[in-house]
Amino acid sequence: MVTDPPLSHTAHARAVLVLGLPLVGSHLAQIAITVTDTLMLGRYGVEALAAGVLAHTVFFTVFVVGAGYAFAVMPMVAKAAAAGDATQVRRVTRMGLWLSVLYAAVVFPLFWASEPLLRGLGQEPEIAALASDYLRIAAFGMLPSLLGMVMKSYFSALERAQAVLWVSAAGALANVGLNWVLIFGNLGFPEMGVRGAAVASLLTVAGMLAGFIAIAVLALPEHRLFQRLWKPDWEAFFAVFRLGWPIGLTHLAESGLFSAATMMMGWIGTVELAAHGIALQLASITFMVHIGLSQAATVRTGRAWGRGDAVNLMRGGVMALVASAAFVGVTILLFLTLPEPLMGLFLDPSDPDRPAVIGVGVMLLALAALFQLADAAQVMALGLLRGVQDTRVPMVMAGVSYWLIGAPASAGLGIWLGWGAAGVWLGLVAGLGAAALMLMARFWGQRLWLGQMGLESDAAAATSGPAPAA
To answer: Which of 102, 210, 438, 439 sits most deeply, having the most CB atoms within 10 A of its CB?
Structure first.
């Protein structure tokens, strides 16, 4: 195979940041939609906040499974682009869109049956009813959300992350205005509360999808992405499916652990659930940085994989991990030194439950600081593994870590031993830590994928020896 000259570690760091920072920005803009909902619902009332937390958790858990197909598109498009195969880029992306449509149709009824399901899971009837109001509207947003994820993967794999950033940022800003109008009933609109937040999110994701489609048509006409979109391509369909379903189940294992933790918090009490929701939002904001860097690692690794270039593959992996670790240090400092002001941002100063929610939240942010390193490490390892299209064994590792270690630990410490919210979050730390150790060992056990490339002899050059100038 023809490979590029080895780049220095500094050059790899620059490449990771040039691609990764716009992706980080786009993910921060994306989560700003959820954070905006949480902030404004917190100002609306603690019950609305708790219901919003519960609804977001359910929606996200279902969403991330379907997003596995979008994540599969990224390394496949990156590999095809590295080989100069525009036809394969088009085939893979189209079938990612097909799979997203099918998945959205399958899960739609789940949201309509959400109230009895939530009550059956032990949630308070009033909170379950409000959460169901949100989910019935959000059901219509599943399809544009998933299609938008496929388009993001397509742009990212082509290293056009700026398009993703600007559309996501515009969506986040639009969501703020829509929430202000629809939750509180401003500008003559009816006051819709939780349902207003759902309508705002639906309109936002639909607008973002329209933006992505317009950019693809105008900026990348050579791919003819939407011509004869209705025509099946079963070879590409099943290729995306085979790579994507393990990614979806890996996401389910992790997000399911956090969903289970949310349910446990609902059993403990409304104040604890609200505090958990805020602390989790703050942890999720910082996690978006690592998601963006992880996707940059997937693209860079996927392109090196497509060229059969082990040296640049591993050097790029090292520098992606260094960038992620640097941000972990900043996050830990922030959570340990400013917990009360951060929690207070999400609550009405006049709310009588505010002191209790902040008190629980301060403790949870201390634990969030503890699991930042593990959470970053596991998502970075997943990004690197996806770049070399290794998804099935990581799926098993995630299932073991989160459901044989994390979930039992959360239930045992938080519920059975009566440690409450702190015990539930200690279980999260245990699950994330186990996943980080297993997945990192999987990637850096190089022969698993270097053997497929026939490049075992190049491995040492990736991490040792003088680096040539960029």
So the answer is: 439
User: What type of residue sits at position 86?
Assistant: A
Distance (Å) of CA 139 to CA 63, 113, 198, 256: 10, 11, 9, 19
Q: Which two tokens stand for residue 362?
A: 């301060």
Residue 327: what residue type?
A: F
Residues 6+ apart with CB under 8 A from 3: 307, 308, 309, 311, 312
Q: How many residues does the chain have?
A: 470
- From residue 162, alpha-carbon distances to 165, 215, 387 in Å are 5, 11, 21
Residue 268 CA, chain-centre distance (Å), reads 27
Answer whether 131's CB lies under 8 Å from 58's CB.
yes
Q: What CA–CA distance (Å, rounded) separates 156 from 162?
A: 9
Q: How many angstroms separate the CA atoms of 459 and 388, rounded?
A: 15
pLDDT tier at 239 (50, 70, 90 boundaries)? very high
Tell me if 127 sits within 8 A of 270, measured CB to CB: yes
Residue 287: other Cβ atoms inside 10 A: 20
The reported pTM is 0.76
Instruction: Give the residue from 240, 283, 254 showing the smallest Cα distance to 397.
Output: 254
Q: Using one digit for the tens of pLDDT, what is the confidence trace for 12-66?
A: 777 777 777 788 888 788 777 877 887 788 778 878 878 887 888 889 889 989 9
Q: Return the structure tokens found at 104.
A: 């959205």
The dihedral over CA atoms of 363, 368, 373, 378, expressed in degrees to the nearest 10, equals 140
At 226, the amino acid letter reads F
Which residues are CB-neighbours of 172 under 8 A, at least 6 positions away? 29, 30, 32, 33, 36, 204
pLDDT in tens, 65-122: 999 999 899 889 988 888 889 899 999 999 999 999 999 999 999 998 888 888 887 7
Please report, for residues 70, 169, 221, 455, the alpha-carbon distance to residue 218 in angstroms, rounded to integers and kept in the order given. 21, 20, 6, 40
- Tokens 């590999």 belong to residue: 79
- Nearest in space to 5 (alpha carbons), one of 461, 452, 464, 451: 461
d(CA 380, CA 167): 25
Structure token digits, residue 456: 């075992």
Q: Provide the strand spans (E) within 167-223.
A: none
Q: For the packed helices 9-44 and 142-157, what is the interaxial angle rounded to 10 degrees?
A: 160
Q: Are 399 and 448 spatial neighbours (Cβ–Cβ below 8 Å)?
A: no
Whether 302 contacts 82, CB under 8 Å: yes
Q: Are 181 and 245 a contacting pair, CB within 8 Å?
A: no
Q: For residue 461, how far is the Cα from the chain centroid?
A: 33
